[in-house]
Amino acid sequence: MRRFTFIHRGHGGPEELSIEVDDSLQRCVLSRGGRSEPASIARLPDGRVSLLLEDGRQICGRVRVLCGGDLEVVTGSSRRKIALADPLRDRIAHAAQSESGSPAEEEIRALMPGRVIEIAVKRGQRVGAGELVLVLEAMKMQNEIRASRGGTVAEIRVEAGRAVEGGAIMVVLRADEEPS
Amino acid sequence: MRRFTFIHRGHGGPEELSIEVDDSLQRCVLSRGGRSEPASIARLPDGRVSLLLEDGRQICGRVRVLCGGDLEVVTGSSRRKIALADPLRDRIAHAAQSESGSPAEEEIRALMPGRVIEIAVKRGQRVGAGELVLVLEAMKMQNEIRASRGGTVAEIRVEAGRAVEGGAIMVVLRADEEPS
Amino acid sequence: MRLLVANRGEIAVRIFRACRDLGIETVAVFSDADRQSPHVTMADHAVRLGPAPSRESYLSIPALLDAARRTGARLVHPGYGFLAENAGFARACAEAGLVFVGPSPEAIEAMGSKTGSRRMMEKAGVPVVPGTVEPARSAAELKEFARRAGYPILLKASAGGGGKGMRQVDSEKDLDAAFTRVCAEAQAAFGDPSVYAEKRIERPRHIEVQVVGHPREGVLAVGERECSIQRRHQKVLEECPSPAIDDALRGRLCDAAVAAARAVGYTSCGTVEFLVAPDHSFYFLEMNTRLQVEHPVTEEVWGVDLAAAMIRIALNEPLPADLSRLRPRGHAIECRIYAEDASRGFAPSPGRIASLRLPEGPGIRNDVGVEAGSVVPIDYDPMLGKLIAHGADRAAALKRLARALSDYEISGVDTTLPLFRALCADEEFVRGNFDVQWLDRRLSGGLLGAEAPRASEIWLAATAMAQAEAPLAPASAGGSASLWRGAARREALRD
Amino acid sequence: MRLLVANRGEIAVRIFRACRDLGIETVAVFSDADRQSPHVTMADHAVRLGPAPSRESYLSIPALLDAARRTGARLVHPGYGFLAENAGFARACAEAGLVFVGPSPEAIEAMGSKTGSRRMMEKAGVPVVPGTVEPARSAAELKEFARRAGYPILLKASAGGGGKGMRQVDSEKDLDAAFTRVCAEAQAAFGDPSVYAEKRIERPRHIEVQVVGHPREGVLAVGERECSIQRRHQKVLEECPSPAIDDALRGRLCDAAVAAARAVGYTSCGTVEFLVAPDHSFYFLEMNTRLQVEHPVTEEVWGVDLAAAMIRIALNEPLPADLSRLRPRGHAIECRIYAEDASRGFAPSPGRIASLRLPEGPGIRNDVGVEAGSVVPIDYDPMLGKLIAHGADRAAALKRLARALSDYEISGVDTTLPLFRALCADEEFVRGNFDVQWLDRRLSGGLLGAEAPRASEIWLAATAMAQAEAPLAPASAGGSASLWRGAARREALRD
């Protein structure tokens, strides 16, 4: 069994939850607010996950990593953005925010281990907010990573076709000067 | 432009055809029986191929490698096995057959470059005809490679998770003695 | 309220959809072969029954009752196949305080015996095929029957069904040997050597009538279905209405079906099967005391939801619309899509479905129990699902069916799709000119001739091979002219 | 015979399906943004028009005519939008020897002018909203009209449509300023400053009548559609029939629609739009001289194929069934699924569709123009497709719609699916109690309130994260207990 702890930032502030997974990746124990519940996991052929809880409840959906680092959870009847991260990445994300409302540099990190499929920018290139920076394949999905604000590409630390660790800095953007 | 030559073994015996593809993989020239025709190629997101010929005809379908080495071509209205190979592999396949109707060893080769996803047998293990030997990911598909006859695993030359070249021998099976 | 479906595949999916339409929560059960199946991953609750073999999973009454208890299910729907016509299961459900969605155990039992149901039908005035009624004790008894009714006759195992344990006898000299053989086969296959004889009806159609029985509202017929397109006595394609039935004959068939259902106090959806001779005489064959595989063609033409009606009846609720006011509209055709290899005598073709693209659009309904990546297990019936086409008349439905069949992509396993594509191009079939042996004759006549690959298919193969072997273009650092180009390149890189 | 669809997306797919049902070969055209789109990859022929911008592709009449010439197309269908109501295109097709699938250029032109069509309708006895008819030359002229008709009035750009260039004036003191502003807006948006005034009908419904005109068989009405569910004057959900129309009113609306179509010698499928006041008075709004987005709800309820009928009429063939004998059955609802972000004021949400799972089963029809992996371009209307649910009555259709919406998975782009899920749970909508401004009021009242993630969704996220980060189990060399286990492991390994 291996234990993972996550921080979920919902409307009520950050909350810790954990999940223990056995080596087969098929059995787990979910713990939240002092209560634990065993469950079985099935990864479906198209990438969705099905969770079967001890009381028979079945939950099925698809999870993708969004460029902001949030997770997109899509079930048949909903599509929701969930702020869930492991404690380290949660600290990185929220420390950066609290230090400066508008930092001079934007570090684009891989929020999950994955593989860089394409780098759409060059060093020194000017990119606008929302422009494609790179494509990261993670969790069976191609995630288009876009610049959240305009800026100039200061560093590219990855190569197309190479794997990246979760949390690794991939690209550094230097923010535009505020015009006013 | 790069040129590929294939041997198609249809009802009328082997026939050579060739295709020239440009570096973008989007333009090509198809040649068969002395006639050439330019076309554009689009690879669709789900792995299908769309060919657009000079006269406007559009052809769309999915191509998979079957364990015997034939190609499976699936369009909306058909599913056909096509014996198409490059001249080297065509020679290997048909030379082996003509030497012996039932050779003592079966070499399981990668008919396409790909990645071994799982090896389902161990050295020395007895496998029956049709039993899963390994899973090879090629052309976006997971191809289950099965033993065509019963035998014993003599050699395993690949590792799970590793890439293999097209034509490489992956597993060698020693055939069962004929019972009669 | 929760409903457990004691089944798998497309019928479990179909019944779950009806539950969702009725606001009822769903409980799936699964064997180890089905943990990833759509009927499980669409359900609100799911319970493992046991290993893949049916006996240890979908046929295990204790495991099913335990699953219902654990999830608090109040209703149990048997689907078709497995325990659908097992009176013992219906009784066990009732004893466990569960509502069995189907007719009473007595009705199931009454229709379960071929000879018993036959006697009952004769009493109710429903025409039956001339036959011995009672199991024959000797070949001599059969000879006497055959002299009266005339050859050819059919010998049938009393406990048989679906074409198993059946043999045609063309003249008296063959009768002794045939009797001995069918008795032995019946003993081996069904554990019961009883055999009876029937007159063989020449070139009949298999026509069935949908009935709906309600405890208070009585029994109603909802039109007929044409089920003559069979391969070795197994239906492969069904239609509503039949192209061979006129209003007068339809009325007589429906009256007979209602009389049959009334005779057993039938209170659910059910089907009364008939053989219809070319001279429009018809004969009761059997009654299926369950939701039929081919119920969707009736639903499309009559505008009724039979699966939902069946659940409402089980809950003793009134039926939603006045069924007697329903009128048919248009024509519907269903194809049963099996994972079978037509080139090897329709042998099951288990394996992983590598890709699946369903047809969509006007007049098309998909009732499917698998998805791309699903493994078709060797343990169960290899039906993947059903394609239903509906149009303003038979010609329109056939054209839509042909269109849907040319939009249907399944790779990884062999399927019966080529059979249906060939049927749509067959003149006799398109004219509606067939009987129950027609398809077997056409198949041995080469309906599914091996076609040479088309040039377009060879070019697709060559292009894919060339693309896969071409030196990969280096991942561009920017400069891609458009998102479209970038996307195309990324996709090409994946191989 | 070949038909070219001068359009893209779901309507091109819809028309190609009709062609296949009629045995007509298909020709797609595409811009550089659409080479991989389903409408191209399903077609028998395809021709590139030009770069992504509409002006250089789908609006380029020379490129379209050239594509038809190169592929030998005989028919050209404009779909909706783009050149669908452009009389010049219809004329250019005729001059190039092509059959334009639609009404005559004269009928398109007659209905294209708001004031011109209004005059024509008054002459034909079709009620119109009290208004100035002619473009107003001054605010004074409008004041005189308003004194007669009563406030509030609406100022509208003569060249406008779909809610653009429209402003309500509640009292005389606001009129001068409003007139100046609307004239300026009209000049900026349409290059034509003409403005006219209409009495504002309070809480009206938007009801439209489907008409089918045939050169020899005349004009027929095929029932009405309820189109009051609009967001800022754009339809988002349509029904057939309207829950607010009784047989008497339906008859009067259909008579008026037939009179309107006859007045312009209409010979194709078309739609006459009306405003219906709560007192059942109604007023001609405009006529859409094309196949309407929401035509499928009529097809489902009336059992007719409007897209095929339109092509048959263009070929001067008789209509397949006697349309006048058609009778409606049940109820159908269509949802327009747009790539729009409801949480950002329904801003377009272009991008790549990461996954797409369509609902299936009884009563569900998908008319969709994209597939998993498709890129939704920024260049065109962001409609992905339409979901149509059909049931025995409105309640049944709504339940099936809700079921289908809970089976509909789209990831990668934002869509309007949450809006439809909220509507299915809204009491007033379910009661059928709404008017054309109802949805805008409900949206500002918080119809789409942000819901907190459910525990189940958080657990799915955590499980997926844990699985993705767990040390990968070594690829086993045999010994996997079953194919199912092996499959699960292989899939897990892919990440």
Structure at a glance:
The complex is a heterotetramer, with two copies of chain A (180 residues) and two copies of chain C (495 residues). Helix content of chain A is 7%, strand content 55%.
Structure notes:
- The complex is a heterotetramer, with two copies of chain A (180 residues) and two copies of chain C (495 residues).
- The N and C termini of chain A lie far apart (55 Å).
- Chain A has one helix and 17 strands.
- The mean pLDDT of chain A is 82.
- Chain A is 7% helix and 55% strand.
- Chain A has 180 residues and is mainly beta.
- In chain C, helix 4 (87-95) runs antiparallel to helix 5 (105-112).
- Classes of the chains: A mainly beta (180), C alpha+beta (495).
- The interface between C and D is large, with 53 and 53 residues.
The amount of beta strand of chain A, in percent, is: over 45%
What is the N-to-C succession of helices and strands of chain A? EEEEEEEEEHEEEEEEEE
**For the largest beta sheet of chain A, what order do the strands appear in spatially?**
8-7-6-5-4-3-2-1-9
Query: What is the makeup of the main sheet of chain C?
Result: 8 strands, antiparallel
By secondary-structure content and strand pairing, the structural class of chain A works out as mainly beta
Number of continuous helical runs of chain C: 17
Number of DSSP E strands of chain A? 17
Could you tell me the mean pLDDT of chain C? 90
**What's the assembly state of these chains?**
heterotetramer
Give the overall average pLDDT of chain A.
Answer: 82
Low-confidence stretches of chain A: none
- Rounded to the nearest angstrom, the distance between the terminal CA atoms of chain C is 49 Å
